[in-house]
Structures are given as structure tokens and as C-alpha cells.
Amino acid sequence: MEKRKLWHANWALIILTVIIVAVGLANLYSACAIRLEDGIAFRPFYQRQLGFVGIGALCMIFAMMFDYRRLETIALPLFILSIVLLLLVPVIGKEVGGARRWIPLGIINLQPSEVAKITVMIMGAKLLAKGKGAMGWAEFFKVLFMGMIPCMFVFLQPDLGTSIIIMAILGGMIIFRGIKAPIVKLGILLLLLSPIFIWKGVYPNLKPYQQQRIKSFVDPSAASRDALFQRDQALIAIGSGQTWGKGWMDGPQNNLHFIREKHTDYAIAVFGEEHGFVGSAALVGLFCLFLLSICATARDAKDRFGSYLCAGVFFYFLWQILINIGMVSGMMPVVGVPLPFFSHGGTGTVVNFCLIGIVLSVSMRRFVFKTS
């Protein structure tokens, strides 16, 4: 029975994930390399990422073998657990770069905000699967309120990028389900008014470095050189790659360490410098096929919960890819969102693999039962 299920797995998604992970590791290898007279040394991020990928792959296998329908019954306990973890961050959390986001657990630092992304997705799928047709006001506010609880705690860490991602994932799932016309009109109105709300309500409560990031995006001429340094160096690196790139491990901006966060949020700047426009376009194409394969599973799922779960995973990866690439290319303000399978990070990498495993679990069981 399990072998039959395995044949029904979304093999296109498995192959695309393996390719993207391999390319991401090769890019991180270059980003972490330090040239010495007697050879090459590596910053510890690369070795740690190899370990994270190994753990993530095991978690993916476990998730795909686990019947995703059981997640619907434990959605609420998982959601409560993620809230408890977020509440523990200010108490026992580890502070890095002015933000307290991680709980130290020996060899790995757990980032509860990443866990919250999964639990919000699962809880959202459970709530959305209960109804049929376009959502009304009561159901809409119920789902929205559920997502705002973890977002509030994540925003206070502070982690503006992750809080935006969580609400964007939930918003995408709501749109996938469908909403009635009055809610659409309200959404458009709030979208138009959002710049005023952000400027008057959110901006004054941000940390100084977050305010500086927004200022440097809105008015680069008024920003300090230090505030623009990271963005400018990333753009120089991407631009210097031109059509075909400088070649793997031969990028000057990378080798001379002008890109500060090249192993995390700015990993794609290293890739753009070394592989040029052609390589970057091919990478975007890979991500597009990756997203389309998740869409195919969402379409073919035989129950609403599985379909909404896959939709959540789709929007999770979509927003992170769009925001990271937009941020590095200067089209969006810097919000600290990693690029899936490219940026170094323990919790994020394991979460990415777990989500792929959940999608594979849905695809493997699409012929096991049918619902009306």
C-alpha cells in the first residue's frame, strides 16, 4: 500500500526541490569560501547548512509518510504550542543584531516565528475547509483574527518581515477559498489606505534600523552611505555579472567580502554575480516550475483541507521568493526575508523541507479516498 502511494507522489516537485537545494548549496559553498595561500577555508555556515539539509530531508520523508489528514485533528494544539514558543522568546530567547527571535537548543537555535508559519497554515486550512463557497464576514474575521495573534508577537521581536509573510500567506489562502464582494471592496479600500496607516501607525513603532531601511528605500538621497551600502553592493554584484556571469567562485564582490550578508538574505546577489542574467533567469524559471508543481497538488487534492494546505505552502514560498528577490534587487525595502533553500538558517531550512513533505503527503493520498 505504501509503495503504491509512493508512486503517486509529486515526483516533479521532488526533482525540482533536489535541484534547487543542490544549486543553493553550491552557491553557499562559494559565499562561505575564504581564499588562502595554501588553499580554501570555509566559514562555518556551510558545514552547518549541510547538517540542516540532512535533518530537513529526514523531516521531509517523515512528513510525506505521515497522513496529512491527522494534522486537521491536531491543528489547534499545534497552534497553541507555537504561541507558547513565541511567548518564551522574550524570556529565554537569544538576541542577535538587536532582535530576540531565537530559543537556543544546544546545536540549533529554534526560531518560533518559522514554526508559527506552519501552524497558522494548518489552522487556516482547518478553518477554511469547514465552509463552502465564498467567505462571509463572520468566517473572514475568524480566520483573520487567528492569524493576527502570532503576528503580533512576531512583530514585537521585532521581525517585521516574518509578520508580513504570515499575514500574506493567510491572505493568499483566503483569496484561494474566495470571498464575497463587500469584503473585496473593503480589502481594496484598506490596501489603498495602507501607506497612510503604515506611515502613521506602524512606522513610529519600528526600531531605528527598521525605520532607516524604509527611509533608504523611499528616499535614497536622504539615507546614509552605511544604510545603502548593502543594497548598493548587491546591485553592483548583480550588475557586474552581466549576461553570463563571472563564473562560480570568481565573483569579485563575493571574494572581496563587499556583500555582508551573502550567506543569508543576500545569497542571490552572489548567484547573480557568478552566473549573470542567464543563470538568474534559469533560477527564477526553476522556482516558477517548483511553485507550479505545488499548485498541481493543490488542484488534485481530494479534500478541501489538503487543497487549502497546499495553497498555504504555495503562498509561503511565493511571497518569500518575491520579497527576497525584490529586496536584493532594490525594488522593495529590506525586511530580512530569506530565500528558500538558498539562505543559511536551521529552523527555516527544516521548515521548508517539512512543508514540501506535507505537499507530497497530499499528492500521495489523492487516490486513497474521495469526498463529495
Which segments are poorly predicted (pLDDT under 50) over 5 or more consecutive residues?
Answer: none
Amino- and carboxy-terminal Cα gap: 24 Å
Roughly how many Å is the radius of gyration? Answer: 21 Å
Chain-averaged pLDDT: 86
Strand order of the largest sheet: 3-4-5
Description:
The chain is globular and about 65 Å long. The protein has a 3-stranded antiparallel β-sheet with strand order 3-4-5, with helices on one face. A two-stranded antiparallel sheet has the order 1-2. Helix content is 70%, strand content 6%. Helix 5 (75-92) runs parallel beside helix 7, helix 7 (137-155) runs antiparallel to helix 8 (160-177) and helix 13 packs antiparallel against helix 14 (304-328). It has helices spanning 2-7, 11-32, 44-65, 69-73, 75-92, 112-130, 137-155, 160-177, 181-202, 208-218, 225-240, 252-255, 267-300, 304-328, 346-364; strands at 33-36, 39-42, 94-96, 99-105, 108-110. The protein has 15 helices and 5 strands. With 372 residues, it is mostly helical.
What topology does this entry show?
Layout: H1 2-7, H2 11-32, E1 33-36, E2 39-42, H3 44-65, H4 69-73, H5 75-92, E3 94-96, E4 99-105, E5 108-110, H6 112-130, H7 137-155, H8 160-177, H9 181-202, H10 208-218, H11 225-240, H12 252-255, H13 267-300, H14 304-328, H15 346-364
Antiparallel strand pairs: 1-2, 3-4, 4-5
Helix pairs in contact: 2-3, 2-13, 3-15, 5-6, 5-7, 6-7, 6-8, 6-14, 6-15, 7-8, 8-14, 11-13, 13-14, 13-15, 14-15
